[in-house]
Amino acid sequence: MNKLPQPPPGGPQRHYGFWMNEALGREEPEAQRQEGAETADVLIVGGGYVGLWTAIRIAELDPALRVTVIEADLCGSGASGRNGGFAFGWWPKIETLIDRVGSEEALVLADAADQAVFELGEFCGREGIDADFTPGGWIWTATSGAQRGAWRGAMKTARGLGSDPFKELSPDELRDRTGSPVHLGGVFEAKAATVQPAILARGLRQAAVRRGVRVCEKSPVLSMDGKSGTVKTASGTVRASSIVLATNAWLAGIPELRRAIVPLSSDVVVTGKMSGELAASGWTGREAISDSRLMVHYYRTTSDGRVVLGKGGGGLGTFGRVPDEFEQNSDRIRQCTQSLRHLVPATRGVAIEDGWGGAVDRSTDGLPFFGALKSSVPVYYGAGFSGNGVVPSLLAGRILASMALGRRDEWSHCGLARGIPGKFPPEPFRSAGGWLVRDAVRRKESKEDSGRKVGFWNAKIASLAPSGFFKPSDSDES
Ligand SMILES: Cc1cc2nc3c(=O)[nH]c(=O)nc-3n(C[C@H](O)[C@H](O)[C@H](O)COP(=O)(O)OP(=O)(O)OC[C@H]3O[C@@H](n4cnc5c(N)ncnc54)[C@H](O)[C@@H]3O)c2cc1C
Questions:
Q1: Domain with CATH 3.30.9.10 in the chain
Q2: Looking at the chain, which terminus has fewer C-beta neighbours within 10 angstroms, N or C?
Q3: Which residues line ligand 1 (CB under 6 A)?
Q4: Digit-coded pLDDT (tens) for 132-164
């Protein structure tokens, strides 16, 4: 019997954030709870993108199957309704992807992720999901001398595979397109988009329901018995022939996965609606923008003229726990606001409308992985999205659906579906080391931002951090 960790209880006291409030404001409330003793063919725990895409895929592959999704609070109340809404694939991580699955398959997966950006837009159109899918592309920038050329390794490796996803932008072009003088260099990836993430999550929920999936919300799973394939919720049980765990960073509470992922926070602020400031600055193309820090800044605009900025890696969950304060931490929201004013000068003087955070499931190499727990009834998991899950979750749905249905295909046998790729040190060393390395990264990046020299030991300790959305060892100064 495995106890499953719980996200914070839902209700008015929970801070969902601007995106989710906007999405819920467009709906009639209709959460259906799990009650009594039920059975299902496939049971999916977790109603975020990963759980919902998996449910949709299974329902499409075999409409006769009884598929149940059980979500602790509301679908989208986790990272899926809180994220930055950057929809991009795996080219920035191509070198790590090659390390994991080899060149040939890395190319197949990177192409599949590119295609998934397009499919996401198509799916929203077809299903009437008004998630503001905007294919404005992504600008990957350097905002300090140390970040310059961070993309070179990925660019060269992609070219070696016969692909050319990044187009270098001159400093003038960068300034014109981003409306900000802080970008010293950068590249543009055209096959990227932004979405309103919570409307997407709620739309996936509806798409699953339309396909006959039973979606239970406000039904936290308290424990799971892998021998009988039964989960216990607050007010009942569900027994299934196979189980898929899609609970993101909360998976770190499962003993077999405890050393495979570390829960980190990512924190976000959104401005009020702006009138004319963005147009005057020149940032009118709806591009998503990131810098090249490990504690990455990511920023984008919305269709109603707001700027959303997030910052990764501020909080660390120790001993496999996801602290409730990940969802709103005033210090980290203040830091996001400061970064926003610096990186997007057009927002200076514009009020901040909301600030919130969410949990990220960091794997050792920054890529997701899929596998099965040791149990009598098959229990599959998908974890380690590491802050890039909007598009990869669509592919995750294919992988987990194929695994749950016992299909032998390119998804269930792909190189990402070979279980845990690497382990963090055991506790308490992991948390102690994690705090030490994270502080060193914070000090190093803050010095680099202001052009100060980074000390030898600071750089040495910071270099122990697992890579972010690119491999830092391959960056170079230009
Ligand atoms: C602030 C932030 C910004 C991000 N920005 C981006 C971005 O711009 N682009 C990008 O690609 N990715 C981004 N990500 C990552 C992306 O949001 C995630 O990778 C993706 O949403 C993960 O989907 P999921 O279904 O695994 O997780 P979640 O959406 O967290 O879903 C897991 C669900 O499981 C439920 N659950 C947990 N325990 C239980 C239980 N015991 N019983 C029942 N249910 C349970 C939770 O309530 C939750 O709803 C960001 C993440 C955060 C937090």
A1: 113-196+263-363
A2: N
A3: 4, 6-7, 45-51, 70-73, 77-80, 82-86, 220-221, 246-248, 250, 266, 268, 298, 310, 357-360, 385, 387-390, 393
A4: 999 999 999 999 999 999 999 999 999 999 999
